[in-house]
C-alpha cells in the first residue's frame, strides 16, 4: 500500500480524534472503511486521490452491493469517505470532493429484537464461568447491561470512580465523550458489589487497573470479550435468538416504555442527542399499545349497551 496515501489517512484519523473529539469506535470504523477503499484503489490501479472519479465510486458501490453489505454499512463507508475528502480539500490535496454527489442509500429500519420479561428473569438467574470470580463478573455484566442500557463500549470503558453503589448511579462517558447519569436497580447493585469486592480482587492479581470489568489476566475486558460472554449466556439459556449486548439495550428501552416511561426519559438514559434516534431505536411493544388503547379509547372502555 502506498505509504503517502496511508499517511494522509493517519493524519485524518488523528484530526478526528484530537480536533473533532470522535469516539475510538467511530475512528476504528473509519480506519477500516478507508483501508478497504485504499485496497480497492490499488486493485483499480488508481495511485492518487485526485484520480478518484464518480465512475470509480460507482464501481466501488457495485462491489459493496455484490458483497451483500447492509445498506447501513454502505452508508457509513460513503460517509467516512466523504468526510475524508472534505479533509483533503481543506488541506489542498484535492480540488473537489467526488463523494459530495453520492446520494446516501436508504437504510432499512428493522424492529429491534428484545427479550421478554420471563426470558430476562431466567437470564438474571444464570451463573456461568470458568472460576468463581468469573461467575461473579459475568453475572454483574448481564445485570448491568439490562439495568442501565449501556452501550457495550461504555461498559468496557467503565472505571471504578464512575460507579456510585450507595446511590445506584453510574456516570457514563458516552459517544463524543458526552457525560450522562444512569441509574440501576437492586439486583445490579448486589451483583456489582459482590463482583467488585470479591471476584474482581481475585482477577486483579498484581495489576492496578481502574477498569471495572477485567479479563482472566487482570486487564481491561474488551468489547469483544463482553460480546462473547453475553452470547454464551444466551446459549446457556437455550435462546433461539443470538443474544448480544445491544439486544439487552433494546430490552432495557422496550421494558421502560412498557412500564409507561416517557420517551424523553428513555432518550436521556440511552444517551441519544435527538428524540428521533430514540423513536427509531426503541419500539413500543404490542402489549403496551394495547394497554394504552384500552385505557384511552372511549369505545374500548366499556361494552356498548344492546
Task: Provide a concise account of the structure shown.
The protein has 306 residues and is mainly alpha-helical. The chain has 13 helices and three strands.
Describe this structure in words.
It is a single chain. The protein is mainly α and 306 residues long. It folds into two domains: 3-90, DNA polymerase, domain 1; 117-291, hpI Integrase, Chain A (Orthogonal Bundle), CATH 1.10.443. The chain is built from 13 helices and three strands, in the order αααααααβββαααααα. Helix 6 crosses helix 10 and helix 11 crosses helix 12. It is globular, with a radius of gyration of 23 Å. The termini are far apart. The model is unreliable at 302-306 (pLDDT under 50).
Task: Name a few traits of the molecule.
single chain; 306 residues; mainly alpha; DNA polymerase, domain 1; hpI Integrase, Chain A; 2 domains; 3-stranded antiparallel sheet; 13 helices; 3 strands
- State the order of secondary-structure elements, H for helix, E for strand: HHHHHHHEEEHHHHHH
How many strands, what sense, and barrel or not for the largest sheet?
A: 3 strands, antiparallel
State the domain count: 2
The CATH class label of the largest domain is Mainly Alpha
Distance linking N and C termini: 81 Å
Q: Whole-number radius of gyration?
A: 23 Å
Residue-averaged pLDDT: 86
CATH superfamily membership of the largest domain = Intergrase catalytic core
Total strand segments = 3
Globally, the shape reads globular
What is the second-level CATH architecture of the largest domain?
Answer: Orthogonal Bundle
The CATH topology of the largest domain is hpI Integrase, Chain A
Q: What structural category do the secondary elements indicate?
A: mainly alpha
Please indicate the percent range of residues in DSSP E strands (runs of 2 or more): under 5%
- Contiguous uncertain segments of 5+ residues: 302-306
- Order of strands across the main sheet: 1-2-3
Range of helix content: 55-70%
- The total of helices stands at 13
